[in-house]
Specification:
It is built from three helices and eight strands, in the order ββααββββββα. The protein is α+β, with helices and mostly antiparallel strands. It has two domains: 5-74, 2-Layer Sandwich (Alpha-Beta Plaits); 84-135, no CATH class. It comes from Arcicella aquatica.
């Protein structure tokens, strides 16, 4: 069973899935008032406004962080009309948008927001990035 932790400020709920996290550090370097891995809980939404939190969650390269609005009338449509692919220097291939990933056995999984694909070959969670590129000093 996959672990999902939820943090809410009453307006938005942030969901963290540790198994997807590639430890890019973008969240806590960009928004340390909300994300602080040295504290428990490490996510404290009360320290920032909802729009700032949502924008930071959208920047998560692995989709380990996601969100939903608690008020369904305000819920943002997270689908996108197009897909963007970004190659990170010495890191993963990021795909922004909605996509279906089919594995070598034909199993399909739906991904949305941002998906990080391994480029270094060292991930133990292929085809997804698990941060191994940093450990093996991947250059590319």
């Amino acid at each position: 069973m996959e672990i999902k932790k939820k943090y809410s400020n009453g307006e938005v709920t942030v969901v963290w899935q540790p198994s997807k996290c590639i430890h890019s550090t973008i969240c806590f370097k960009s928004l340390p008032t909300v994300f602080n891995p040295r504290k428990r809980p490490w996510v404290t939404l009360e320290n920032e406004d909802t729009n700032t939190i949502v924008e930071q969650v959208k920047a998560c390269p692995s989709s380990a962080l996601s969100y939903f609005m608690n008020d369904e009338d305000k819920q943002e449509n997270q689908s996108t009309a197009s897909t963007l692919v970004e190659v990170l220097a010495n890191g993963p291939l990021l795909v922004y948008g909605n996509l279906t990933v089919k594995d070598n056995e034909g199993n399909e999984s739906m991904k949305s927001q941002t998906t990080a694909f391994c480029r270094c070959g060292g991930s133990s969670n292929k085809p997804y990035c698990d941060g191994a590129h940093a450990k093996i000093a991947f250059e590319g």
